[in-house]
């Protein structure tokens, strides 16, 4: 089984490689220097060279605030990239696994979003990711689109690392307490994606760790787990403006994932515990 992972040096890409790196699979790993997913010729050349069975697209432009100003770059990578991969997948009968986001929603629902809920992104990153989804649905039928959220992992910057770093040089930290989601450890997202390799239950799925919290709740849990004592102040989003708007409540329901017989992911609290052991043992 030949699996091509784009963006393998990214946060999720790293954990996908760790999870899939065994004798069962022949992994083709590319970064943007080897294959730029916005360049169809690059893609076609690679696909012609290898008889690829599955593409996992872990490549994206993930700078949410940057997407508001670097619109062309964000659109090319997040919308045209998946389109190129969908076209090639259709042509060569390849299964395409693509990753999307909770930011396709406006966050006004106040209960977990299902795959059937209406999308309405409130920032440009979300718009580009939604367009990427649409291009995939239009161009290929053997696809999995996985919507996930609030990712953290060992490889790359993330909220947990930011909090721990801030605590080194501050006595108090303000964290927003009116945005809700579910922190998701890329290790468990990668393990979930592995299940799709042998599945033909194609379509759109929400996949996150289970549970929900605000960024403030999450920060509190991080410091408790790390036994770091710091004054943590809950603040409103309005007190902490960002270039791109964020949805207020974008928890994703994993019901479809479980109803289709896939393994539920563990709770975000258990996942954080495991991650923190890895993170704290580095020092
Ligand atoms: N991070 C989150 O909280 C979050 C939440 C929901 C959904 N997601 C989605 O989950 C997926 C993985 O996210 P992540 O956080 O692991 O992303 P990441 O760490 O930013 O990794 C993305 C990778 O894509 C590469 N890349 C960028 N442009 C490329 C191009 N034109 N061709 C090929 N590769 C390119 C990047 O390389 P360079 O670094 O060299 O540019 C990077 O290695 C993405 O689809 C993202 O939209 C993420």
The CATH class assignment of one domain is: Alpha Beta
Percentage of residues in strands: 15-25%
The largest sheet, given as strand count, sense and whether it forms a barrel, is: 6 strands, parallel
CATH homologous superfamily label of one domain:
NAD(P)-binding Rossmann-like Domain
Regions with little confidence, pLDDT below 50 for 5+ residues: none
Walk me through the structure.
The protein is an alpha/beta fold. The strands form four sheets. The chain has a six-stranded parallel sheet with strand order 2-1-3-4-5-10, with helices on both faces. A two-stranded parallel sheet has the order 6-9. Helix 5 links the parallel strand 4 and strand 5. Helix 1 packs across helix 7. The longest helix has 22 residues. The N and C termini lie far apart (38 Å). The site of NADP nicotinamide-adenine-dinucleotide phosphate (NAP) has 27 residues, from helix 1, helix 4 and strand 4.
Please outline what is shown here.
The protein is of the alpha/beta class. Helix content is 41%, strand content 17%. The chain has a domain at 2-154 and 183-210 and 250-266: Rossmann fold, CATH 3.40.50.
């Amino acid at each position: 089984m030949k699996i091509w992972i784009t963006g393998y040096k990214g946060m999720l890409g790293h954990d996908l490689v760790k999870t899939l790196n065994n004798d069962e699979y022949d992994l083709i790993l590319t970064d943007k220097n080897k294959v730029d997913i916005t360049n169809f010729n690059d893609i076609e050349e690679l696909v012609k060279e290898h008889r690829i069975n599955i593409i996992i697209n872990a490549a994206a432009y993930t700078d949410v605030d940057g997407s508001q100003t670097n619109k062309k770059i964000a659109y090319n990578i997040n919308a045209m990239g998946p389109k190129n991969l969908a076209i090639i997948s259709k042509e060569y009968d390849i299964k395409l696994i693509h990753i999307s986001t909770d930011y396709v929603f406006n966050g006004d629902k106040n209960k977990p979003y299902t795959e059937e809920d209406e999308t309405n992104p409130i920032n440009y990153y979300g718009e580009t990711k939604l367009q990427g989804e649409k291009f995939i649905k239009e161009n290929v039928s053997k696809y999995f689109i996985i919507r996930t959220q609030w990712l953290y992992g060992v490889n790359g910057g993330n909220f947990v690392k930011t909090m721990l770093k801030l605590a080194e040089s501050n006595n108090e930290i303000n964290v927003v307490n009116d945005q809700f989601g579910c922190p998701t450890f890329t290790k468990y997202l990668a393990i979930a994606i592995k299940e799709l390799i042998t599945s033909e239950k194609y379509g759109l799925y929400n996949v996150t760790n289970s549970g929900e919290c605000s960024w403030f709740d999450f920060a509190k849990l991080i410091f408790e787990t790390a036994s770091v004592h710091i004054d943590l102040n809950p603040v409103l989003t309005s007190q902490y403006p960002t270039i791109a708007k964020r949805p207020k409540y974008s928890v994703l329901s994993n019901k479809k994932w479980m109803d289709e017989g896939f393994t539920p992911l563990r709770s975000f609290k258990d996942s954080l515990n495991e991650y923190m052991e890895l993170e704290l043992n580095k020092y």
